[in-house]
Amino acid sequence: MTMQPRKPLRLALIGWGAINRRVADLLAERSSGDITIAAVAVRNPAAAGDIPAGAKLITEPDELAGLDLDLVVEAAGREAVGIWGKAALVHAPAFAVASTSAFCDDALLARLIAAAESRGSQLLIPPGALAGIDGIAAASLLPLDEVVHRIVKPPAAWRGTSAESLLGLDGITEATAFFSGTAREAASRFPQNANVAVISALAGIGLDRTRVELVADPAAGGNGHQLSARGAFGKLDIAIENRPLATNPKSSEMTALGLVRLVENRVRTLVR
């Protein structure tokens, strides 16, 4: 039997912050030449002098045209999803969105779904920092009664967010919940830290039925997520504690690892 050579996957990264830099580093370490970073999109070219060799530095969505892309991965913040989303779906067969808090805007999500349908492309939602999303998505094929997502992070991870106006981060001595509400509310108010709540919501019962609790815990060793789901399928309870990215404590190492897995699965013979 003659083996058919696989065409290298051509990847564009939207954003060159902590997450996509980590993704690029991991792909470079692990790749055997079957993945090429064809382009990196940024707002400020002066801050992106260290992009991967051979990658084209771009600043406008229409520059995705003609790059023969197989996948576009966004990790640049919620505004970037609206700016780059349609062009990504037009010029590549798949667009993976890390800044899922953008999908609190129902109209934006509807526009991108429509764009994907019109081009035959796919809008992909990675698992982010979570475990068990495949289980919740499968369970949602039958009626789900509830999904609860508890996010526990050390006080330092909540600095620079509106959590600072809700409690004194320097003074707490035990785990302290400072927000309880819907996934839509959590991701809208805390887009850097609770962005991940949109992932559990879209996998299950939606932004307005998924309950989210945000907690600052001085004893937390990392960024933790506790997911519980109840429904016709049975019961699911999962907990994960992630190491934060060394260059950004608001994000988890698992977020970058999940994106690497998504990219590599596009070229693997055995998908897992």
Automatic annotation (TrEMBL):
Which intervals hold domain Aspartate/homoserine dehydrogenase NAD-binding? 15-126
Give the EC number(s) listed in the UniProt record. 1.4.1.21
InterPro entries attached to this UniProt entry:
Asp/hSer_DH_NAD-bd (IPR005106), Asp_DH (IPR002811), Asp_DH_prok (IPR020626), L-Asp_DH (IPR011182), NAD(P)-bd_dom_sf (IPR036291)
Its pathway is: Cofactor biosynthesis; NAD(+) biosynthesis; iminoaspartate from L-aspartate (dehydrogenase route): step 1/1
Pfam short name (any one) = NAD_binding_3
Catalytic positions are 225
Q: Which family does it belong to?
A: Belongs to the L-aspartate dehydrogenase family.
Additional note from the record: The iminoaspartate product is unstable in aqueous solution and can decompose to oxaloacetate and ammonia.
Function recorded in the entry: Specifically catalyzes the NAD or NADP-dependent dehydrogenation of L-aspartate to iminoaspartate.
Protein name as annotated: L-aspartate dehydrogenase
Q: What is the lineage of its organism?
A: Bacteria, Pseudomonadati, Pseudomonadota, Alphaproteobacteria, Hyphomicrobiales
Name the gene for this chain.
nadX
